[in-house]
Design brief:
6 copies of one chain form a homohexamer. By secondary structure, chain A is of the alpha/beta class. Chain A has a single domain, classed as 3-Layer(aba) Sandwich (Rossmann fold). The first copy, chain A, is about 40% helix and about 15% strand. Chain A has 7 helices and 8 strands, in the order βαβααβαβαββααββ. In chain A, helix 5 links the parallel strand 4 and strand 5. In chain A, helix 1 runs antiparallel to helix 6 and helix 4 crosses helix 5. Chain A starts with 5 loop residues before the first strand and ends with a strand. At the D-F interface, loops of D face helix 5 of F.
Amino acid sequence: MTSKKTALVISAHSADFVWRCGGAIALHAVKLGYDVSVVCLSYGERGESAKLWKQDGMTLERVKSERRAEAENAAQALGVKDIQFFDLGDYPLDMDRDAKFRLVDVIRAVQPQFMLSHSHHDPYNTDHAYATRIAMECRMIAQAWGHNPGEQVLGAPQLYLFEPHQTEQMGWKPDTFLDITDVWDRKRAAIECMRGQEHLWDYYTNAAQNRGNHFRRNSGGQAGGRTARYAEGFQSVYPRTIDEL
Amino acid sequence: MTSKKTALVISAHSADFVWRCGGAIALHAVKLGYDVSVVCLSYGERGESAKLWKQDGMTLERVKSERRAEAENAAQALGVKDIQFFDLGDYPLDMDRDAKFRLVDVIRAVQPQFMLSHSHHDPYNTDHAYATRIAMECRMIAQAWGHNPGEQVLGAPQLYLFEPHQTEQMGWKPDTFLDITDVWDRKRAAIECMRGQEHLWDYYTNAAQNRGNHFRRNSGGQAGGRTARYAEGFQSVYPRTIDEL
Amino acid sequence: MTSKKTALVISAHSADFVWRCGGAIALHAVKLGYDVSVVCLSYGERGESAKLWKQDGMTLERVKSERRAEAENAAQALGVKDIQFFDLGDYPLDMDRDAKFRLVDVIRAVQPQFMLSHSHHDPYNTDHAYATRIAMECRMIAQAWGHNPGEQVLGAPQLYLFEPHQTEQMGWKPDTFLDITDVWDRKRAAIECMRGQEHLWDYYTNAAQNRGNHFRRNSGGQAGGRTARYAEGFQSVYPRTIDEL
Amino acid sequence: MTSKKTALVISAHSADFVWRCGGAIALHAVKLGYDVSVVCLSYGERGESAKLWKQDGMTLERVKSERRAEAENAAQALGVKDIQFFDLGDYPLDMDRDAKFRLVDVIRAVQPQFMLSHSHHDPYNTDHAYATRIAMECRMIAQAWGHNPGEQVLGAPQLYLFEPHQTEQMGWKPDTFLDITDVWDRKRAAIECMRGQEHLWDYYTNAAQNRGNHFRRNSGGQAGGRTARYAEGFQSVYPRTIDEL
Amino acid sequence: MTSKKTALVISAHSADFVWRCGGAIALHAVKLGYDVSVVCLSYGERGESAKLWKQDGMTLERVKSERRAEAENAAQALGVKDIQFFDLGDYPLDMDRDAKFRLVDVIRAVQPQFMLSHSHHDPYNTDHAYATRIAMECRMIAQAWGHNPGEQVLGAPQLYLFEPHQTEQMGWKPDTFLDITDVWDRKRAAIECMRGQEHLWDYYTNAAQNRGNHFRRNSGGQAGGRTARYAEGFQSVYPRTIDEL
Amino acid sequence: MTSKKTALVISAHSADFVWRCGGAIALHAVKLGYDVSVVCLSYGERGESAKLWKQDGMTLERVKSERRAEAENAAQALGVKDIQFFDLGDYPLDMDRDAKFRLVDVIRAVQPQFMLSHSHHDPYNTDHAYATRIAMECRMIAQAWGHNPGEQVLGAPQLYLFEPHQTEQMGWKPDTFLDITDVWDRKRAAIECMRGQEHLWDYYTNAAQNRGNHFRRNSGGQAGGRTARYAEGFQSVYPRTIDEL
């Protein structure tokens, strides 16, 4: 356990954390001094590696290895302190009790101020919603005094749902916009580590610019808000507890 | 206009602001140095004054006068800087263009950091949802550069929806809990100014205690959150724009 | 099987039935002559026994034993005829085919007029929503003529969802309020059997009082409804079939 | 005011009450001894009288007159005690303050045990949802002690939303099925009074038969429920207050 | 693989495809030249065969056998090219990884232009919603380049959700009506193959007639739409991609 | 009336039609031979002309005049056949009976194959949702045989809701993606006519590119869909009626 503030990202496949919350990671890791941990439940080796599979003689192990290298490079670009690969398989992702408890161990070890994972729904990709369902279950287990008694139990960290692809099909509604202008270069660098999904580089650049517009609208509108050029959006699962509205 | 931070409460009837956000008002007015303004669109003279109407010889003017006195006393107990009575009538509340523009004038004069009003839905009391609908419309007008050109246009203040009666029937979901322990005595004093609705005193005391439990759960749970004894809940209409999750 | 009317409560953890439907149990068992059965799928031994786990040298077996004693005492106070402990484990609760069929056996044996279980959603406690999902699945199996052919199949009993903690976060909306004034003393007595969760005693007393207000509102409002002082709320899963509106 | 039980139907156009709740009317009026009143806010003379308008030389007055005669005949067949035609115009229906207060007068005079009106939403026919919105507003006004002080105020009658056309497009979900087998002949007779909309006779006969199936399913299913052959479905706006689940 | 257009129906129990999309099957198979394949995940032998189980000496194998014969007859009447029985058991239906991959194999072999399955929700019958959940998961797996590399991956076929029983309780909302007038006789013939569920023959005939009314309304209304006499409704899971609105 | 196919856009403010459905307009007008009509209910002169109002000595009439010129230029670039300015005022937009009937007259004159308007909800801009509500009301009136008897009544055209700003906050969910690659240059040219809102040019270019990605995903995904580079999304209000799934 660290005395620094901490955050934990739970990513169904090894590239999700880059597109969806790379800016939040870099901002907290580099600007705000958090230790940010990332758990990749799978490599997305079967379902999100089409480009690799089109190469002759490709094997599952080589796909995993290349996906892992990409994710590690991206994590480094973003300032991630610790990235773990659970290698649980994808399409479908499936977690037994042991895998859940392994995730609980990480949650308790990190004791995050906040957690990040996928949207509640995804009709295109059932692994995504599954990862969030498990993240909520494991958050609950980590809070249980009777799970591995003696360990420090988890408090009540917020779980932010990061931006899915085709947001409207997922029923995802962001309630929080984060200005990532200062770390945009790092996010773009991390994005460019994803060599197998080059068709998404500009997509998520467009998205970040348009979220910047949303940030400006909601921080001031035509009266002049904050001049954020790049932003990310998040949906909160739990209520906030505050001392000033 | 003031150089202090400001907040604006839009209350359909003259007692709503007490039950539903008296704690938020007192906290910001007394502890945090805000100038808090309250607009009561009506006195609730027809629909929320049953006890007065049961007295012999009661008249509409006397009901209004007693309701106004109660609201002024409560406002004083809460540290409200300015309370205005639009006297637009209730059951049903109805606002024409002039009334809307009068509300826009107040919004622009106050330039609030945040606004407070009713839930989006209320099948028991159509005045409540109507007030919020108008609050949103007037927020929009106040942002228009072409409305009374030359005046300072409004930025993008949050609109918090305070707690309705029978929350689940309203589809109201709080995303924000505010600790009002330090100002609870003021809220209870304001509540006791509402002599015509004594049956609600304990109801909203119970509610504040139970919201205190929700505050504790969401700020730490069984790992030990903040020891809030009284709280209020709010639902946000617009996304937040922030620099740290 | 009994010739008396019957009801069945399916409780994820061994204390849930007390807070959430203790009044309904006592009313039907004591005043209305039902045989009420309760199934506790787990003791809540890992996740809902923080106070016990803070004692030195606590073991899982001792926690279960103390939780069981509390639940038995509460059941007795409420007039429960039969309480069964499935001891399936909690945080997470997980039911295999055998456990489901065991629950089906109970449902068929009881042949309940109505069933009671948790809300459809609970982002804080995935065991709760899971229990209701299984209750619905087992209700379906109990209706199947091909399951243990020869046994009496189940009719179409209502499934009422009792009040969760933080109702608005669960998307729970009560459509039925039950007056429990006459049996309130029994519910309070049962609540006080829950020695490990004393922080919830007043919470659920407040809740019952405020639900009493909802009962009065919906049975007459300001024209004078029933003077219920304590009530419980329930959400129905299935439509009612009636002969008079 | 009557000493008998009473019910009030608020129908946007003069034929709606027949298709949508003719069975409920006849059952309560004929079998259960209620005085049932019907208010037709308009004749549906512009928008629901295509067949009449296709006749040569048709005028608005003649359409109204024929629609009124049809509705009166249907009301008689159903045992309606009192049918009133507000003649407020349709497509669009629009009610000013006087029209609302006129409806409040009827509600207070009837003092209904329950009210019936349209679904909350109808993208095909905005008059329908408007009628329900007004019904809820007028229910609220009728409860106000300050509206025509001295009159008997309204209690808290249920508002049932009867079956719209194309139910799924309206977001209407019935929570209550009423067995109308005993009065089906009366409903069919009332339906056949609607000479201008013969294309709907079989439609609503089919609907009543299929709702009979839903009644059977929900009252017993494959274990053998009530043998209802015809039923109607309703959605409740407010919670019920009861003494037995 | 065929050079003809293809469609795939995934049916939880062996009769579902008849009631819910028999018209769509016959229309595409007979009129439009598709090869239509049907997968029955179970026979509905435990939960949807009450009439058979009421016969003396009935066994599970005999129920399956009779259900299979009925389904094969219905499939023939509808022009189905290929019907497969996975025989996975019902009440509850449960699919392990092998069963999912078997379904993926079929999807890939068929390469359907569109797929058909159950509604997202069904509180009466958890097998139905489960089948659709698995259909979506298997559609995803079939799209994965890393699943059985070398096989032709699936494109992005629409998944239509066919009409459930008690549509409003399922939250099912049709966005597409298909005119099945030309093939109605085939659908009725297929329905009559279902000897064990005769109580549903008229139910689904009524439903098809009333959906015909919906077709007319939405294709022209009172201005004169298409004279469809029978129709079926479907809800789309994914957006359409088109070249003309 | 024309013998060509027709479409009608109802735009709350004079620029909305450009950002939100400029591609659909150009595609249908230029490539598909439709006569496309546009009604601008207001100029957006008060609320959407901040840049103009910041100029010295600006007047309402000059703002309107400049906004009109921009809209006419954009309409020309898109191939619009007819653009009408109702000049009803904005912030808030308000339509009395005469204004509604004027819109009905246009709808009947155009007899559109489909209509286009705003999303159902918009908490930032109440004019938008209001315009759609009125569009639905006027569609209904245009269908009424008793409205201006003798005129050709309207059939049942689809109403497509075009893309709002901050889609997720509006609860807008596109079910239809239209490939606008072939007319993108025209849409960009129209966008550049909007000199007062230059900050939105790139925003809606980004949006169109990302919707192109959604088109590709839904027309084929990783198996290779249509190579649309620009697209627009739409939500349908009414079900489709078709002859092939």
